[in-house]
Structure formats: C-alpha cells, structure tokens
C-alpha cells in the first residue's frame, strides 16, 4: 500500500481534499447541531429535575414544620380560655408532645395576657408559674393575632440552631403555646437530598443564614450565604410572591465552584431550599455524549480520509495513465498503449486514444513512405535539372565561345581591312566595313551578355576583388559614353563626394554596371541630361543614375530587372537590346552585397539607385 | 498505510477513552492507625465500627485500632505522649473526659475525636463548641445541663423525699464541681436538701452508700463516669440494698441492670456522630474546623421492677416522659 502515498500531483490531492472536506463538513455540521440541541435539551431536563427536587425538599421541610405546628395545634385546645387552664393537665399534654416530637426541646405556655405560666423542657427542670412577661414579645403578639409565629433561627450554646413556634388557641381568652424546635432534625431532611453524586441541598433562612447543610459544621459555624447571587435572586423573586416556578440557573457555590442551582421557597417561614449540583457532574452525561459524538466524528473523518484516498487513487490512476500515455505519444513513442481497465468511460477514452495512436502510427508510416518517395523523385528531378542546367551552361559557354570565335575573326579582319593592312580601302567600302564592324561589335556585346548571364546562372561568375577608385571608374565610363551622349545632345553630369573612400570590389564589373545604367539612360532619353551621383555613408556607396527620359510605369518597374524582359513599348523595341543588362547588373550588385532599385514615374524620368558596400571582402553567393 | 493509520487511530481512541475512566480511581492503600483511648468496658464500640463501615472504613482493611486504657492518671501523661508518638497514630478516639484530657495533653498534633465528655469547653479541650480551634473535636454528652432535670425526675418519682444524695467521682475535677453546683441550685429550686458523696474507686462504694443511708438520703443522683460504669451491678446492688431510689446520669445499661431510672443522651447516636467526625478527619478535614456536636435525643428509662421493689408508684407524668420502660 506504499503506492497510496506516492506524490500524485494536484488532481489526487484535490480529490482527497474535496472528499474529506465534504464529509468532514457534513459530519461537523451534523455533530455540532446535535451537540447544540442536546445541550439545550439536557439543560432543560436538568433544570426541571433540579427544580422538582428543590420543591420536594422544600415541601418536606415545610411538612416537618407544619407537622410540629399541627402537633402543637392539637394540644392547643387545652389552653383555651373557656375554663382556667389546669396546668397539671397541660403539663402532661406537653410531655406527650415532647415524646411525640423529638424536635421540640421546650414547650411553654403563656396565659392570655402573655405571662409565662408553664415551661417544660428536656434539658431543664420544669418551670411553673414564672410569670415571665412576654406580652410585648412578637411570639405572643403574632400568635394572638391568629397566625402561627415562626421565629428567626437562633443558636443555643453558639452551636445549636433553634426556632420558636408560637400558636394561640382560637378562642378569645386563649393562651399561647410556645415551642422551641431543634432544627437539627431538618438536617436529616436536607442531608438525604441527593442530586446525582455530588449534588446537595441546603436551606437558608430569610436572612441568608445557613439553616441546614449536608456539612453540619457549616451550619454550626453560622455561615451566611447572602453573598451568593443565587440567594439574592431567590429572595428578590420570591418576595414578589409569584406562583411561577423559579428557573434553575448556573452560579457559583459557596466554595466558588460552578454549579447548577435551583431553589424553592418555604413560604410560611421565609426560608429557601437550594439544590446545587456541580456543573461538571450535572452535565456529565452531556459531556459524555459530546465526547461520544466527537469520537464518532473523528472516526468518521478518519474513515473518510482513508476512503477518499482510495477513491481518489481509483479516479486519478486512469487519468494519470491517460496523461502519461498522451505525453509519451506526443513525444513520439507511438508504440505506447494506454492501459486502463476501469470498466467505464475512462476505459473507453483510453481505447480511443490507443486507436488514435494506431492510426497516427499508420499515417506516419504511410507519410514517411510517401515522403521518401517524393524525396527520391525530387532528388532525381533535381539532379536532372542540375545536369540539365549544367548542360545548358556548358552548352552556352561552348556556344558563346563557338559564336565568338568566328565573330572575333570577322571583327578582327574587318579592323585590319579598315586599317588598310590589305591595301587601301575605298571610301564606300570603308563605310560599309564600318557598319559591319558596328554590327559585329553589337553582336559581340550581345553574345557577351548571354555568356555573362549563363556564367552567373551557373554560379561561375567570380568577382575579382581589388581596390578601386569610384572616381576613376566613373571617369572611365563617361569617357566611353561621351560621344554617344553628345550625339543625342544630352548633358552628362556627375556628382561625387569629395572624400570618397577607396572601394574594394570587382572594378570591371562595377564599371559594367555603370555602363549598363548610363548606357540605358542615354539610350532611352531623347533630351535633357543624365546625371550620376555618388555618396557614401556607413561604409556603403550610394549611387544614383538619373535621366530625364520618359520614365517607367509601375508595371515596367516591376519587371525590368528580370531576365529577357524589357519595358514594353514601341520605343524600346526600336532601341533593341537583349534585355539582359539590368538583370546582369542586378546580379553583380547583389554579388557585391548591394541592392539596386528604380524610382520613376511616367513622363518624369527615371532614377536608378544602387548601394554598394565600400569594402567587399567576399562575394555573396547567389541564392 | 491503511493498516498503519488504523492502528494509530485505534491507539489514539483507546487512549482517549481510558482517560475518563482513569479519572475515577480513588486513593487507595493507606491503612490508618487509630488509637482508642478509653475504659476497657466498651459497650458502644460496635456502634462506632458499624457506622464507620457504612462510611467506608472497615476495621482491619483500611484502618486498625490500638486499644489503650488510661483513665485519670494525669501524672503519667508524658508516658502516654511518648507511647502515642511511638505508635505513629493517625488519629485518636477517646472516650470519657479523663482519657480525652490525657490525650489532649499528650499530643497537640494527632487529631482527637471524643465522646462521652460532658464539658469539653470547660476542660479546655476546645475553644468553643462551634469552633474547636485545636486538634480536638467530638461529641459532648451535655450531662451537666440535664443534671437539674434528672433531680426533678427523681423528685417526681419520690415526691416525699426531702433529702437527696448525689454521688460523683472527685477525680473528675471541675466537672464534679459543676455537677455539684448544678445539683445545689436544682435542689434549692425543688426544695430538697442535697447531700454530696464522693467515691473514687470501687472500694469507696460501700462506704459512700453507708454515708448516704446514715445521713438519711431518700434518693440518689449518680453522675456516671469511669470507674462507675465498670461497676454497674455493684452500685445498683448497693442502691437496692440501701433502698435508695436512684437516677443515673448515664447510659441505659444502668436501669437495665436494675437502677430505678436513668436520664442521659442517647449514646449510640453519639458514637454514630463521632464516626462521622472521624470520617471527615480521615478525608482531610481539620478538627479545628469541625464543631462539637451536642446530643439531640435524650433517653429517660424507668425500671418498673425496681420501682416495685422499692414500693414506688411511678406517676403518670413520668411514664409519659419515659422513652423506655423496663418491666
């Protein structure tokens, strides 16, 4: 299973993260909701229980007190005023009461005017007829007013909680029975109240003094709980005499521990019973359920992580296979077959890929074959062409030579005759001979042109690169064409920068170019001038040959540099020429590394421009 | 990897789960050493042990008792001190004033719980009932307070008696003093003459009774204490022989043994309260913070057989008050 963790790139991670997030999110959401509702329910339930128990405890205590009250009440008739109270009888009744109500430690009888006439005690001797005056005492007054008097809690010997209860007979002349009740008995009631394991009840009087507590010592120490907020709250709300049940609340107990507290009043006494359970314990089942839920959530998340890893792997592996395969195929390995066996669309996709690859491979194979064939054909054709061209060049070269030889002979002999080597030549014959010579030279020029061109085409034109002076070249050229220009009354102008550098190139060929351009200019210009300008900049000569001739149309400008092409008009046909001059010039310029072009417009003359690198070290190969 | 993850997870979970369970474990193992200082005549010790068992303290399991009888031997207290030190006691349970007095003076460190002590404040065992303040606390028998009542009960049984004797152990020091004082004022209130008689040891009993009879006592109030409690039959026999109606400020085994009446706190309850105090101390409370408890129930026992033997008719008023009547 180590493969599960191999870095798989972002898709894998994405899937894992997505899946885990989804599941975790769902679990978390549901878990949290459950916890929230569970908390509410728990709290409500706990509150209710607590409240119930508090009420139960309160009612128990109330009953205890009421029972004593009842017992006392029972013997009260004996203190009715109808006939004078027989103290002995009363005493016996009091003894009975003491027997029946262990909580009562002392009973005394106040006569209708509030004087104590009898006191019976467990601890002390009977006191008969003490005449102690209690007529102003609240216990007497309250009892006489018809209500049971419940005195405040007081302590005997600093350590025993007691309470006085006084009840009067309901006849007008009835006396009052006063009982001292030992409240330790209430402790049993309180001590037996249990809430959970650590929950306890306690009772406080209207002043916040602790009356009963599971820890007796706290009571004996006369602890006062008034400072606790829940006591405050209980006293406040109960003073409103509301019938509503008190809500249990969360507060801190006497020792500062957080507790769930509920209270119930013991109305006639003005006391309160409090039920407190440590918060931790009260919510223990809740915490347990949270813990359970959290555990389950964790388990769920862990499970989802594992499952997501598996799922993502299942999903990513075929995609990865596709990616790898595509990369391999793209890189050229057409023999690679993508293996996917997931039984779904991805498998189909894989198969499609493979099919595509197979087809590609076939096509390539076919293509390669065809290419090879074509290449073979072309190579063959090319070879043949080359051979043909070579033949042609050879032929031309041969033919030129064959053509020139007899022509040279003709020209030679013609010159000789004109030089009167073979005797005097009559004038008429001289004229004819001169015309012969002209034609012959013209023919020679044509043949030379053709020869040049064929050489150039065969790639056999070699430039002879040497230093030259542009000035000299032009001078030479002008010298050649002077007469021609003069014949047509054309002005020959030249403008050369003064400090022209020494050029390096094939002087002869450059001269040839000049001759061609100037010659053309003279040939095609009827009147005006022919001007040559030479400047230099950046190691390049800039030459222009301009005339005031008829100019060239756009169409003509395009084609004049092509071989065998001439500007198409009747005048050029008249002038004659092979149409090779410009193309040869172009080749020569370009072999020097320069450029030649024309600027012209019909009726406005033409300007042929070309650039020439000042120093040409090597001729440019013809493309 | 799946397996590894699962194992890790399982370990985590089990660790988490064991936490809450581990938290519930209690401190166990320590066996506390209790020193029982008191007379050899132990009547209520079973009550104490039973109550301790209810609270989780089982003799022999988590505490052991070393018995030591001491009594009133103030001059030998240093010996006791050394003894207590040597035995490395965790706390002392002392019965009756004498032993408590000795224990209190022998150690101020070892917690002491007393029962059957009539006046802990007077003897300086505690600063006050509500806040003992020292290393001593316990259950008071409050006998002095009910002295007058006892006399009154006797007078009611023997209305014609004009001279009543009271028997006490002088070795009890100021307690005897207070007892006498109370008796005096009660006698005065009831209009009887009081004759105080001392008896320290059993050998004094006979002489004491002789004195009483000689002086014409018609009734007897006995303040019970060691060694009286160990010689109940003798004293009862003497009372019978001398035709002295007797009320004992002591446990119910007096009237059961033949004494006419007894009025005293319910002692088993005292021992039970003491057990609760011991429990609190063993759980870490300090005696200084545990208030002394007073009796809540008082027992008035009448032996009608003895009454018949004395030719006494017990009046209705007494019968009504009696918590137990022995036929």
Major sheet description of chain B: 7 strands, mixed
How many β strands of chain B by DSSP? 12
If strands are numbered along the chain, what order do they take across the biggest sheet of chain B?
A: 7-6-8-9-10-11-12
Characterize the overall form of chain A: rod-shaped
By DSSP, the count of extended strands of chain A is 19
Distance between the termini of chain A: 66 Å
Structure overview:
- Chain A is of the alpha+beta class and 623 residues long.
- In chain A, 53% of the residues lie in helices and 18% in strands.
- Chain A has helices spanning 9-75, 87-100, 138-144, 184-192, 216-220, 229-239, 279-282, 284-331, 345-418, 427-457, 470-487, 507-524, 554-559, 570-575, 581-592, and strands at residues 104-110, 116-121, 127-128, 149-150, 154-156, 160-168, 176-182, 200-204, 210-212, 249-252, 258-266, 271-278, 466-468, 490-496, 503-505, 528-537, 540-547, 595-600, 606-613.
- In chain A, the strands form four sheets. In chain A, strands 1, 2, 3, 4, 5, 6 and 7 form a seven-stranded antiparallel β-sheet that branches. In chain A, strands 9-8-12-11-10 form a five-stranded antiparallel β-sheet.
- In chain A, a hairpin with a 5-residue loop joins β10 and β11 (258-266).
- In chain A, α11 (470-487) runs parallel beside α12 and α12 (507-524) runs antiparallel to α15 (581-592).
- Chain A is rod-shaped, with a radius of gyration of 69 Å.
- The two termini of chain A are 66 Å apart.
- Mean pLDDT of chain A is 81; it is low at 240-246.
- Chain B has 327 residues and is of the alpha/beta class.
- Chain B contains twelve helices and twelve strands.
- In chain B, the strands form two sheets. Chain B has a seven-stranded mixed β-sheet with strand order 7-6-8-9-10-11-12, with helices on both faces. Chain B has a five-stranded parallel β-sheet with strand order 2-1-3-4-5, with helices on both faces.
- The chains are: A alpha+beta (623), B alpha/beta (327).
- Chains A and B meet through α2, α5 and α8 of A and α1, α5, α6 and α12 of B.
